[in-house]
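Fold this sequence, please.
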Amino acid sequence: MTHNGTRNGHGNGTGDTDALRAEIRRTRVELGETVEALAAKADVKKRLKSSADQARERVREQAALTVARVRGQAALTHPPVRGRHGPAPFVALAAGAIVTAVVLMIIRGRRG
């Protein structure tokens, strides 16, 4: 630099001034982008919400896949039954009757 403040020594300095202003504009843009990126990282609440939303969506997808897989396996191993539902109602009724009889015998035994 010369003593008049220009690099080229011509004295007008307009080329250097324009270049300097352009550099300042670029620096301001970069600084603005950096500040926005830092603000986004500092917004913990928003980041947690975003992470929770992503996790919720993954769980829903996994649940849907699991339900589909289980239904597919159930359809292959247990074809749908029409009409009677097998011996299950009779077994439940018999078990209830036995439990009732045992409870009545215990109550009679304590009274007598």
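The CA atoms of residues 60 and 79 lie 27 Å apart. The helical segments are 14-42, 44-77, 88-111.
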